[in-house]
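Supplementary material to the annual report.
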Amino acid sequence: SAVISQKPSRDICQRGTSLTIQCQVDSQVTMMFWYRQQPGQSLTLIATANQGSEATYESGFVIDKFPISRPNLTFSTLTVSNMSPEDSSIYLCSVVGTSGASLGQFFGPGTRLTVL
Amino acid sequence: QQQVKQSPQSLIVQKGGISIINCAYENTAFDYFPWYQQFPGKGPALLIAIRPDVSEKKEGRFTISFNKSAKQFSLHIMDSQPGDSATYFCAARGGRRDYKLSFGAGTTVTVRA
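Predicted assembly:
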């Protein structure tokens, strides 16, 4: 499976500011996603990070609030803009494996964000 | 609208017992059903996964049972250990070239020593 790292691992931010989260994978992957996990909840897909083009957002998520970059096949960033306390969540990067028949989907360790 | 329904929300099992978590789905286009294990403060870890052409898959103490006609699948944790105490999520993905996962609500499993 791919090794995924995220930076920062956690942060406490003030309302109205923005935070950029980085996701780095140790191998080239085709599919990369960003998920949100609100406290005590399940995971919700924010968007698909497309290499070299604009991300594809799920219903309820917009580019102005969650701009995403993916300059190459191993790296992506998610920015949480103009934050409010409701943005306090764990943000997770996910990739689809490229080896074997399983095409398993793997998650990074997450970025725990608290907005005051 | 939650595409994958998971139950129970939580369960407590004695060490050595069997933990059973159930999931149901509606979208027949789903073609890949993974289970994830998540410990507090960690990202979800892929535990085991199954495709709908297989009725059962076993990996160590973890078994997935899949009933395609009923659109249900379940995770069995045999000989449960305190280290298995975690939150478990079922998910579904599909179909062709659609790699987005739909998650169940999660089940918190507590294994008592």
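The mean pLDDT of chain A is 93.
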